[in-house]
Amino acid sequence: MIDLIIPVYKNLKGLRRTLDSINYSVFKVTIVEDGTNEVHGLPHNIKVFKLKKNVGPGQARQYGIDNTFNDYIMFIDAGDVFLSKDIQKSIESIINLNPQENIFSWLYYYKDELTSHIDNRLHGKIYKRKFLHKYDIVFSQAGSYLDEDIGFNRTCRIISNYIHKPFYCIDRPVIQWMTEEDSITQKDNNRSLYEKQSSALSINSMHCISCCRKNNIPENYIRAEINEIAGALYYWFIRTAAERPEYLNEAWKGARLFYTRYEKEIDISTIFVGSARLKKCLQYRDKINFRINIIRFARDILIFKEVPPYYLTKSKIMI
User: Fold this and answer.
1) What is the pLDDT of residue 40?
2) For 92-250, where are the E strands, in sequence order?
3) Rounded CA gap, 97 and 181, in Å?
4) Euclidean distance between CA atoms 281 and 279, whole angstroms
5) Beta carbons of 9 and 72 less than 8 angstroms apart
6) Domain interval for residue 98
7) Where does residue 318 rank: exposed (0-12), middle (13-18), buried (19+ CB within 10 A)?
8) Which pLDDT score is estimated for 317?
9) What phi, psi does 49 have (nearest 5°)?
10) pLDDT score recorded for residue 313
11) What residues have CB less than 8 Å from 238, skipping those under 6 apart?
């Protein structure tokens, strides 16, 4: 069987929706209740761990990993649903036919759009426990509350590619991501997202890079990822400026964590080469009332602890 780990925090209604969609002949379900003590009345075949304090979804998942024992691990968030119990049954047969694979990646629906296999989220992915243990891949404790899945899965992707075992991709959707109106990241027009996104991305990315270096992944793999992350942080700064400018200093300080750590390793000239993120940056151009380009951003973020006042002009954005 596959260990299916579900972290839950104040979402009993969503959790029941998830549980109704699971094929229990395929999954051994483990719920990690993150410090709320609200989960009750569940079938006896579901294991429930009740954490005494809230530790965030990353550490809740890690607790689930550390206290389960099957050969494969999958995650689903409380509220999300499997699309079909028959599709779940096919997961088991695919794994049995490909025991040499470390990670299986199914497609999933995110906000009604079918996603790509190469995204950094956990949704629809199954991990071999021996792979995680061998390379000591764990969730970041410091970055447990936001972007924790990106740090974890990014690490898995880099190491898996290095050992020439990229994700085993299955071109069928398996999960539907569901919007929860009361979730922390959805409240107040994504306030928590814009307030904490850049710092969370920086913390979890630094955790990823540290794990990769500990496993002696070649520097060319790591440098490419550093540039990718630097571009993502620049994009989030621009997006924050366009959507929630009151959190611009938070976006600046979060990005600064990463840029100062890897100052000598970021190659500005290659950040947006072949990147779809450049187009996204340009889409926010007309909403932004200050001038900024990636070269100036990378220079100034090493100098100023807060956004320089001269950024806040009425000039068009320059990239």
Assistant:
1) 85
2) 103-110, 113-114, 125-128, 168-176
3) 40
4) 5
5) no
6) 2-176
7) exposed
8) 47
9) -105, 130
10) 59
11) 281, 284, 288, 292, 317
Total-model pTM: 0.92
Which residue's structure tokens are 């906000």? 111
Out of 117, 151, 176, pick the residue that ends a domain: 176
The pLDDT, as a whole number, for residue 273 is 60
What DSSP character marks residue 316?
Answer: P
Position 182 in a domain: no
Question: Do both 9 and 43 map to the same domain?
Answer: yes
Same domain flag for 51 and 149: yes
**Do residues 121 and 75 make contact, with C-beta atoms less than 8 angstroms apart?**
no
232 lies in the same domain as 116: no
Query: Do 49 and 113 fall into the same domain?
Result: yes
Which secondary structure element, helix H or strand E, spans residue 27, and what is its range? strand 27-34
139-183 residue pLDDT tens: 999 999 999 999 999 999 999 999 988 899 999 999 999 876 655
| Confidence at residue 289, expressed as pLDDT on a 0 to 100 scale | 63
H-helix or E-strand spanning residue 152: helix 148-162
CA 151 to CA 201: how far, in whole Å? 8
In a domain, 183, yes or no: no
At residue 46, the 3 state secondary structure works out as coil
Determine, yes or no, domain membership for 18: yes
Identify whether residues 20 and 150 lie together within a single domain: yes
Confidence at residue 292, expressed as pLDDT on a 0 to 100 scale? 72
In a domain, 184, yes or no: no
Let me know whether 155 and 195 are in one domain: no
> What is the per-residue pLDDT across 97-107, written as a single tens digit (0 to 9) for each?
999 999 999 99
Which residues in the chain land under pLDDT 70?
A: 180-189, 272-276, 289-291, 312-319
